[in-house]
Amino acid sequence: MVMTRDADTRTGDRRRPVRRAPLAALAGVAAGAATLGTAELLAAVWTRWLGSAGTSSPLLAVGGAFVDRTPPWLKDWAVATFGTADKLALGVGMALTLTVACAALGVLAWRRPTLGVGAFVAVGVVGTLAVLSRPATGVVDLVPTAIGVVVGVQVLRWLTGLVAAVRADDTGRPAHPSARASTGASRRQVLLTAGGVTGVGALGVLAGQLLGTVGRAASRTAQALGLPTPTSTVRVPEDASSGIPGHSDYVTPNADFYRIDTALRVPRIDAQGWSLRVTGMVDEEIEITYEDLLAEEHVEALVTLTCVSNQVGGDLVGNSVWQGWPVRELLARAGVQPDADMVLSRSVDGWTAGTPIEALTDERDSLLAVAMNGEPLPAEHGYPVRLVVPGLYGYVSATKWVTELKVTRFDADEGYWTPRGWSERGPIKTASRIDVPRSNGDLAPDEDGAVTLAGVAWAQHRGIERVEVQIDDGEWREATLLAEPSVDSWRLWTYAWPDAAGGNHQARVRATDATGETQTEQTAAPAPNGASGWHTVDFSVA
């Protein structure tokens, strides 16, 4: 008779039975770790050896495939809930899901070996197809994942065999017909073996990820030393900032600048091998190298970038001094054909943005940027080259790690987020935010009994004309606007509330741009074309 239960229930057995299902689950987790550890380590080495532009990492491929299929409502929820830690949250979620799935496969492989191994292979095939679905990936990039699956299958068979050989009790009697030794195997042996394999697999994943994110610093530094001196510079006057604690700096430090993109791992690009192609509806297709770009006349520009997923009062907005070559110069050199109305920019990882062509060819400071706040672009912000376009949300303009500009039409092409429900052109809405006080914060009156509120407002490429503050449903009072060095960047404001009454209060803010358009009270979610509404905070006066 074949026994499939976890315990030996024969009469007279007084020893505590050994449960094998948890051991089988651990065996499945170990097999999954062995698969991923092998595949990730080989993928990192594979990419460096072949110099492939594709994604051979199964973890990044599966995560990228998930991101590609994320609907707008889920993207909004993830950004609103996790902010710039959204990728970390995705990674944790993937790890938990894979752990549970591998545990279930381990139990299945112990009870039904053929079916369990087949299911394990099927999951490996899904990972292989995910790798194949990534941009610029070829068949050769499947090799690391395929080898990882083969290793995982062998580990799964080996460990589930050990589980089957575990003694039911301390008498040494095997409790499963597939037990391979007369004395069986010990529970401790299985735990130590499976735990060791899991640890080695985890180290392989970690090593693969580290190998994929480091390196080429020397060539990056060498290229950074050659940044040209801009022919046109910007100056930020002292009266553009207030110095009030908690009030935003006029220029956002690089380390504090928000990052929202679809790249699960920041691309590490050697500038010496980078190039940018201009294709599509042009008189002559052009390709320039990084050295070519540095040889052009660069300018500096103050430009505020905003993510379309930014909630009312959110912090997915930042202002920097960008240095680069105006995009209009490159497009003029290629010769844009009259019927073109859009430029589809493409990132090294395949991400695309569809930008209205007038935003890249008029006199605004749309740049192929190579520097940020006087430093070479950080890798997470697009090194070696990214697009910076005033007046448009980032999802239709701010392509990082840019490698191609395809001159085309909106009725012929669309960017990454447009088919996922976001609007086509993405003009930035007029917005404002209260920085001081924070929600549920406290304000202390000065010697004259006044408290000071402070914040920022933005309407890129239009400029801010007026900011008004309302306290406790009272009249709207005009705030003091600080200096505005550029209409393409945000503007800071302060408001002194005289004779502030102690206790709990509520403040609202609204802005009016230079065209005379004032923010409306009506609140709208970010999708499909940006959030709107007045930012409101509750606070107390001591």
What features would you describe in this structure?
It is built from 11 helices and 19 strands. The protein has helices at 21-50, 58-68, 72-82, 86-111, 113-133, 143-164, 187-213, 217-224, 290-294, 327-334, 358-361; strands spanning 275-280, 286-289, 299-306, 317-326, 342-347, 352-356, 367-372, 375-376, 386-388, 402-408, 431-436, 441-443, 451-458, 464-471, 476-478, 480-481, 491-497, 503-513, 535-541. The longest helix is centred in the N-terminal third of the chain and has 30 residues, at 21-50. 32% of the residues lie in helices and 21% in strands. The strands form 4 sheets. It has a 5-stranded mixed beta sheet with strand order 2-1-10-5-6. Strands 3, 4, 7, 8 and 9 form a 5-stranded antiparallel beta sheet that branches. Strands 12-19-18-14-15 form a 5-stranded mixed beta sheet, with no helix packed on it. Residues 1-16, 170-183 and 215-219 have low confidence and may be disordered. Helix 4 (86-111) runs antiparallel to helix 5 (113-133) and helix 4 (86-111) packs across helix 6 (143-164). It is globular, with a radius of gyration of 29 Å. It has 542 residues and is α+β, with helices and mostly antiparallel strands. A hairpin with a 5-residue loop joins strand 1 (275-280) and strand 2 (286-289).
